[in-house]
């Protein structure tokens, strides 16, 4: 369903635009306003009546900025949406940004914004405050684990796993900066692991590992809310690049 999020004046339109374009949803960026501006309920009602059955989010910034994010599978093109919104809100002056995003990203976003602010960034804050960097490498191939771990040891502490259930059990305690996660592992599979840790940690950074770099596999990783995709086996340089692409400066 379509959810409505009024944001405080501290959040700029440029910040939200960058968030939509990069797919980087930071819990420290999204700050909800305590109440709607006067005209927002009417605007929200019109948009929900039209797009309410579609997965997505509406952000209201200041008095006249609207950001509409819809699931990429919605069937609406940005041009369709802008045309329809223009018809619905013909009596209101506004700036509109329309973006498609993945189902995984929307789930991540909704989970974070439905979590109280004091709980939302707990793991993120812990990572920011510690001096050392921590990684998880999850693969049922011991050789692959050792190769990736060996390259990552130059940047920080590495924890290795071959079992998806163990990853979920240990995630909050280890609180990794980046997880390198194979799709096919023992226990619950990698995509289910990704979904569960996203439920625990809005700001989690995950690199999907696979020996299959087909377009369908890459798209699957992206729509699940992972950051980069890493084809196995990988060089030291490519591993470092993936860490950077996961929005973590090494």
Short description:
With 250 residues, the chain is an alpha/beta fold. The protein is 43% helix and 19% strand.
List the helices and strands and how they pair.
Layout: E1 2-6, H1 13-22, H2 40-51, E2 56-61, E3 65-71, H3 78-88, E4 95-101, H4 103-113, H5 117-120, H6 122-129, E5 134-138, H7 142-152, E6 157-161, H8 164-174, E7 178-182, H9 190-200, E8 206-210, H10 215-223, E9 229-231, H11 236-245
Parallel strand pairs: 1-2, 3-4, 5-6, 5-7, 7-8, 8-9
Antiparallel strand pairs: 2-3
Characterise this structure:
The protein has 250 residues and is an alpha/beta fold. The chain has helices at residues 13-22, 40-51, 78-88, 103-113, 117-120, 122-129, 142-152, 164-174, 190-200, 215-223, 236-245, and strands at residues 2-6, 56-61, 65-71, 95-101, 134-138, 157-161, 178-182, 206-210, 229-231. The chain has a five-stranded parallel sheet, sandwiched between helices. The chain has a four-stranded mixed sheet with strand order 1-2-3-4, with helices on both faces. Helix 8 runs parallel beside helix 9 (190-200). It is elongated and about 60 Å long. Mean pLDDT is 77; it is low at 33-37.
Helical fraction = 40-55%
Number of contiguous helices = 11
Radius of gyration: 20 Å
How many discrete structural domains? 2
| Beginning-to-end CA distance, first to last residue | 38 Å
The SSE order reads: EHHEEHEHHHEHEHEHEHEH
Instruction: State the low-pLDDT regions, or none.
Output: 33-37
Q: What overall form do the CA principal axes indicate?
A: elongated
Structural class of the secondary elements?
alpha/beta
Largest sheet geometry: 5 strands, parallel
Mean pLDDT: 77
Strand content: 15-25%
- Spatial ordering of strands, largest sheet: 6-5-7-8-9
What's the total count of β strands? 9
């Amino acid at each position: 369903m379509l959810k409505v999020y009024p944001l405080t004046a501290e959040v700029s339109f440029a910040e939200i635009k960058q968030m939509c374009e990069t797919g980087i949803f930071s819990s420290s960026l999204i700050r909800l306003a305590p109440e709607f501006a006067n005209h927002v309920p009417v605007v929200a009602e019109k948009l929900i009546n039209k797009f309410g059955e579609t997965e997505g989010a509406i952000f209201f910034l200041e008095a006249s900025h609207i950001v509409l994010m819809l699931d990429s599978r919605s069937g609406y093109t940005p041009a369709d949406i802008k045309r329809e919104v223009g018809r619905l809100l013909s009596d209101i002056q506004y700036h509109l940004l329309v973006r498609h995003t993945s189902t995984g990203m929307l789930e991540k976003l909704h989970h974070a914004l439905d979590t109280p602010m004091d709980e939302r960034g707990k793991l993120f804050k812990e990572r920011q405050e510690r001096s050392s960097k921590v990684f998880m490498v999850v693969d049922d191939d011991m050789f692959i684990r050792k190769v990736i771990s060996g390259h990552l040891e130059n940047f920080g502490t590495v924890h290795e796993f071959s079992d998806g259930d163990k990853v979920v059990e240990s995630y909050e305690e280890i609180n990794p900066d980046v997880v390198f996660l194979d799709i096919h592992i023992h226990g619950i599979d990698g995509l289910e692991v990704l979904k569960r840790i996203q439920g625990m940690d809005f700001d989690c950074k995950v690199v999907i590992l696979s020996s299959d770099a087909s377009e369908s596999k890459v798209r699957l990783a992206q729509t699940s809310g992972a950051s980069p995709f890493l084809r196995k086996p990988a060089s030291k340089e490519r591993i470092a690049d993936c860490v950077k692409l996961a929005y973590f400066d090494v």
